[in-house]
Design goal:
The chain is an alpha/beta fold and 399 residues long. It contains 13 helices and 17 strands.
Amino acid sequence: MKNDFRPLLFAGDINVYSVARAFHEAYGIKVRAYGKYPTFPCNDSRILDYRANPDADQNDTFIKLVNEFAEENKDCKVLLIGCGDSYVELISRNLGKYPDNVIAPYIDIDLMSELIHKEKFYDMCKKYNIDFPATFVYKREMGKNFELPFEPPYIIKPSNGIAYWANPFETQKKAYKEDTREALENVLDDIYEAGYDDSIIIQNFIPGDDSYMRVLTSYSDRNKKVVMMCLGHVLLEEHTPHGIGNHAVIITEGNEELCNKMRNFLEGIGYSGWSNFDIKYDERDGKYKVFEINTRQGRSNYYVTGSGANVAEYFVRDRVYQEEFEFKMVDMPHLWRMIPKGVMFKYVNPAYKKQLKELLKQGKDCHSLIYDKDGGFKRKLRQLKGQLGHYYKFKKYMK
């Protein structure tokens, strides 16, 4: 490895760990990361120099940490990478303020703000003929005096995810599924009474279990050209209140028509960096419908690395060494999971169990946290406890 770059990651979850693991696999380096709390899986890792700072997501502290790391590594390029929405927004908002040796591979704050705000994102989708669920945009001033153009069940989620999580409340969920108008109105009241003040998205529920979901991860280079796409067929998601929608089992697959449509969108808006789309197949009309875009690699990004497209290498080859790329579609079947095999086989749609068994038999599988170069008794014990916990969580929350 050339001793000419250093990654600097922000956040403290599985996203961070997966990106750090990708750097360790590709370049053999131990990555510096900052998060708010000393939490698993980043804390006490052999592949991460993880440091907790409760103010890491505050602008002044964030800039201070970046500047200090840039000075420590003034003879290297510093790759500044966000692994959570608030950190990605911080990086984008401060573009142009970093030391000269810092590379921040993100779009400008104006485009980012449009994309991460669901109401504005859906307006952009209309221009590019991208399908999304039937949607009603609710604003607080409407009160109870509004009519929905579709029947229940209803999906309810905030337009502005960052503002939503900044106003916590007891019954807070990532998204809600409600079967009655009364329950819908109660959710709206809870959200606004907690202090949230932006619009709320109410959508028609698309039928189908978790296996109707897809996740599309793309990398757009510094020239704003999409150079890699990896479509994941989600077979199982988490169902805890805060974790609902988090991927638990993914098989990589191909879909040229869908990928080309999203590629046209990304290049049309002038996007650069990692992007991640949540999509669901609607069997009622045979269309793939987009829920949202993340302006970063997703929480489950190791499914991409495990499938043969190391996410760290794209950062480095594009932004540090400024290489040119041929477009790559990653579409060979490969299994990624975050849960024990026992949980996977118990709750996944039976139609896919044969394929899962075959991929396991062929050794075409991976788990974000199972890495033979990052061990230790204490860590393995913590990991085992977390994995066993999924048996309880799925039994309690999976309907």
